[in-house]
Amino acid sequence: MIIFSSSTTDTEKAGAELAKKLKPRDFVALYGDLGVGKTAFVRGAASVLCPDAAVCSPTYAIVNRYGGDVTVYHFDLYRINDEDDLYSTGFFDMIEEDAIFFCEWCEKCPGAIPDNAIKVFISRQGDGRRIEIADTLA
Ligand SMILES: Nc1ncnc2c1ncn2[C@@H]1O[C@H](COP(=O)(O)OP(=O)(O)OP(=O)(O)O)[C@@H](O)[C@H]1O
Ligand SMILES: [Mg+2]
Predict the structure, then answer these.
(1) What distance lies between CA 114 and its chain's CA centroid?
(2) Which of 11, 77, 85, 94 could be a cystine partner for 5, CB 3.0 to 4.6 Å?
(3) Which residues surround ligand 2, an ion (CB under 5 A)?
(4) Mean pLDDT confidence for 51-69
(5) Whose CA is nearest to atom 3 of ligand 1?
(6) Ligand 1 site, residue 128, Cβ cutoff 6 A
(7) Dist CA 129 CA 12 (whole Å)
(8) Which residues pair with 72 in a beta bridge?
(9) What gap in Å lies between CA 108 and CA 37, rounded to an integer?
């Protein structure tokens, strides 16, 4: 599915629409350049899954955990160089939990992304964004 987003709000709405179809153990892998709107997409998704969470970019923390009806993990691999780095963060233990996962910068560590991940590719297109969701749900 391809969505054109002409505003941050549109991108948040796209995240919210996907979130309605998610269930525990789903892993949403986000791809796209700096500042393209990955965190905005996750914020929209979290507004459905855990409305009380304050979503911010876990660029330095690597992971944020939001509580709601379902636990949501929000990863950002921007500062991860390889799978060894990622092991030390507990990523591989966390992704075994009964939670829903969003992961920014999956380009950084392709080998760590589950095979059945729902892939979201965001790119700039004119003044807006092209959002491609490659999965069997959408
Ligand atoms: N159509 C759009 N969709 C999403 N964000 C947009 C759009 N148009 C402008 N923006 C702006 O682009 C920026 C996107 O920031 P955001 O933190 O979501 O990106 P990101 O991909 O997570 O960045 P990073 O690579 O640093 O993690 C925001 O400042 C937002 O307001
Ligand atoms: Mg981000």
Answers:
(1) 13
(2) 11
(3) 38-39, 57, 104
(4) 87
(5) 8
(6) yes
(7) 12
(8) 66, 100
(9) 17
User: Cβ distance 135 to 128 under 8 Å?
Assistant: no
Give the separation between CA 109 and CA 86, rounded to whole angstroms: 8
Q: Flag whether the pTM goes above 0.90.
A: yes
Give residue 6's identity as a one-letter amino acid code: S
- C-alpha 18 – ligand 2 centre gap (Å): 18
The answer, yes or no, to whether residue 138 has pLDDT greater than 60, is no
Query: How far apart are alpha carbons 19 and 13 in whole angstroms?
Result: 10
Query: Is the Cα torsion angle 60, 62, 67, 68 positive or negative in sign?
Result: positive
Please report the domains of the chain, with CATH numbers, ordered by start residue. 2-111+122-133 (3.40.50.300)
Q: Are 88 and 107 in contact (CB under 8 A)?
A: no
Q: Categorize the per-residue pLDDT at 136 as very low, low, confident or very high, splitting at 50, 70 and 90.
A: low
Residue 69 has a pLDDT of 84
> What's the rounded Cα separation, in Å, for the pair 1 and 61?
31
Q: How far apart are CA 90 and CA 6, in angstroms?
A: 36
Asked whether 38 lines ligand 1 (CB < 6 A), one says yes
